[in-house]
Amino acid sequence: MFDVFEKYLNGFCEISQDDLELIRHAGTVKKLRKWQSLLHDGESWRSICFISSGCLRLYRYDENGNDHTVRFGIENWWIGDQESYYQEKPAKYNIEALAASSVILWTKPAWEELMQNIPVLRDFFDRLSNSAFVASQQRIYSLISASAEERYREFQETYPSVFNKVPLHMVASYLGISRETLSRVRKDLSKTK
């Protein structure tokens, strides 16, 4: 599992074997069954989580009990409740495995120590955080400005490896549309092909 992370990290920065060993020993591998939760709302999220394999989703419930998917994560992606992590508040979100998955978790103190002691890792993680912020802004803009069809196409094009791994009702939730609207959009698009 750590080999996947090592290959991923080496694709973005040059890091020594000694530093990789520090990172490896600070992390914990966790295997998840399909539908197993990694986080429940109300718990505290105190980890950095890298997905080695599988597929997870981050979601929360509204006051009517409807769940809303905020993001998906697949191999070589990161996932977590950033609000709970940084503000040290109980989580508002849930994380569950949509398939059998393996993740690497670093506790907050362990990760902060790694970031202090390995400048290359800190620089990489800063760039990663900036990219995540930009992606969040783009997603918000899409949700408030694009049609259901445009959002669906954008999701297919941007995340082709995610699209085929998640149930359609979760895709609808992620896109902020009903299942019925998603069915109509898919039907309309199939007619135009």
UniProtKB/TrEMBL annotation:
Pfam families: cNMP_binding. This is Crp/Fnr family transcriptional regulator. InterPro entries: cNMP-bd_dom, cNMP-bd_dom_sf, RmlC-like_jellyroll. Signal peptide: none annotated. It comes from the Bacteria. Residues 30-117 form the Cyclic nucleotide-binding domain. It comes from Chitinophaga agrisoli.
